[in-house]
Amino acid sequence: MSRSVWFVAGLAVLLALGALILQFAVPSGGGVDKAAFDALQKKVDDLQTQGGGLQIAYLDAEDAFTVFLNAVSDLRQRIADKQNEIAQLQQEFVNSTISKDDYQKQLDELQAELLDAQLAVDIGTIDKMIASDGFSDLRSDLQHLREEAQPLIDEVKDLVSTAKMGVIDQLEFESRYNQVKNAFTQLDQLLTQAATVKIIQAAEKIAVQNGYDLVLRKKNVIVYRNAATLVDITDSVKSEISSYL
């Protein structure tokens, strides 16, 4: 078995362990168990009986997540640059201003560099989380994830160097690239889970501070809402998360 295959197999196991660590902190499936639903139903019934109103807020989780992206905006610029370079190269190929062999060589190099840039964003985000007191409850898990991601960092760097030298067989490059790409995707998913934990915690804090009984997650466009009874707390949650970073 080749070194890269051993690397991916080992990293997959380590990332799976990371998923087991983090999954207990993230609600699964977005559902509510029967006991929680019954308790909520009783509260609604009591409020209706008393003539009171249920205080409801909603959160745009995708918008809240942009706080994490903005925290590493300098690193994300490199991703945009590489994507533009790939688009320009593809246009050159369409215009027949570059040979097929040169196109493939440059494309391999740019794809490896793009993956390296994407990985740098995730690692930079993890490092910011580890350094933040706001993530102290996840610090141990994040440090473990950061340590176990080092082989992936090394493998991507090696792939970039190999692509630049142009001494790798195309099939071998594609195999190695797909392996590290899959490993990166797993790492990215774990990072998203960690960010989700903080979004949920921030939403809970804002809800308690403002006396909301229920916070909904906005998934679709809201055609109409009564601002007096359905409040958007997204900006407050974003401000809270920003204080962590």
Short description:
This protein is mostly helical and 245 residues long. It contains nine helices and three strands, in the order ααβααααααββα.
Structure commentary:
This protein has 245 residues and is mainly alpha-helical. The chain has one domain (3-20, 53-67, 76-244). The chain is built from nine helices and three strands. The chain has helices at 3-23, 34-50, 61-70, 73-94, 100-131, 139-148, 150-165, 170-210, 234-244; strands spanning 56-59, 214-217, 230-232. The protein has a three-stranded parallel β-sheet, covered by helices on one side. Helix 5 (100-131) packs antiparallel against helix 6 (139-148) and helix 5 (100-131) runs antiparallel to helix 7. Residues 1-9 and 19-32 have low confidence and may be disordered.
Termini distance? 42 Å
Which structural class best describes the helix and strand composition? mainly alpha
- Percent of residues in helices comes to over 70%
Output the helix-strand order: HHEHHHHHHEEH
What radius of gyration results from the CA coordinates? Answer: 23 Å
Strand content: under 5%
State the total count of DSSP E strands: 3
Main sheet attributes: strand count, strand direction, barrel closure: 3 strands, parallel
Mean pLDDT: 84
Whole-number tally of structural domains? 1
Q: Sum up the overall morphology in one term.
A: elongated
Count helical runs.
Answer: 9
Sheet with most strands: strand arrangement: 2-1-3
Which spans have pLDDT < 50 for at least 5 consecutive residues?
Answer: 1-9, 19-32
